[in-house]
Amino acid sequence: MNGAEKKLLDDRTIIKEERRQVETEIEHMNGAKMWESGEKKKALDLLAHYKEQIRLRQEEMAHSVLHVQELSQEIAVLQSKLKLLNERKFLAQRKILEPSLEDLLDTKSRSWDPLSRSVYNKTKELVHDYESVASSSDRSSRFVVALVFLLMYTLLVGCMYLAYFMFVRARLSVSKLILLGDICFASFWILVTVLNLILSRDPLYVFSTRISHPFIFFQLTWLCSFVGYTILRVIHLAVSMSLSVLAEVVCVIVVGHHYYIHIWRPAMMDEEFGEYFVFYLCYCCLFIGFSVNKLQALLPLQSMGRSKLSLGDYLRIVLKRLTEPEAPRDEFAASLKVEDADTFDLFANIRKE
């Protein structure tokens, strides 16, 4: 029994020793695991720290890029301002050393009334557009330039021939010029009235908003032509001293003043003007009446008997009255001559009655 107990005690001792070794190894393994987890946590914390540093650096870089872009934009703006200042400096030096007519007018226009200043500015824009067209034409091909000059000289020669025909062959007088003006203005207002009916809008307002530069040229041309037409009316009044001619002059002045106040001035001041169809119709009827009145004085008298004038004779008499010199009389109608055949038929019909 003693040997068995001793052996049992030895086995227990061995088992305790082995158990103690196993527990020690387990403790070592747990310690290593905890150390490993601690190191892993430190590595993760370090990685997160590095990631945060990278994010901050990226934000700083993005902010720096935005700042560089803003600085680049500011530099571009400053360069444009510097260029503008240099141009202004050059223009100021040129205006002081070599002033042009436009520079003098720009200085004087500051003291003008708003309408005159607006007309000057719009006219200056037309001149600048013409200069740009001229500069672009300098870069065109020779064939295009030659064709343009050919058309310009053809138009110039045509206008000179028309002026020669009107003043030499047609033998224009003040009354015939007034008749020509009546027909032109009547045709213009007929066109405006018809366009107003077709478009259901004011054609002059559409003209001014769609193509402004040709409208400015039209406005200036209309003003000059109407002033010349009014002067001819006043000369005719001074020669005839008739109440009917005075009434026509007053009507023309009223029409011109109404057009100036309601259409011409607002258009040149870039203001809106309303629908004036009724006034356009009145203008149309007025100038049509003037034209018919003058044409009736030129038309040959129709015989009331059996032998009426043929169409050829009728047109021949009208053409002759348009091209023959006019005798100065008090009235325009009294200055017209009656053909011999026309006069004979007239007195023959009076005798028969």
From TrEMBL:
Q: Which residues cross the membrane?
A: 143-165, 177-199, 211-232, 239-261, 273-292
Print the keywords alphabetically: Membrane, Transmembrane, Transmembrane helix
Output this protein's name: Uncharacterized protein
Q: Which organism is it from?
A: Timspurckia oligopyrenoides
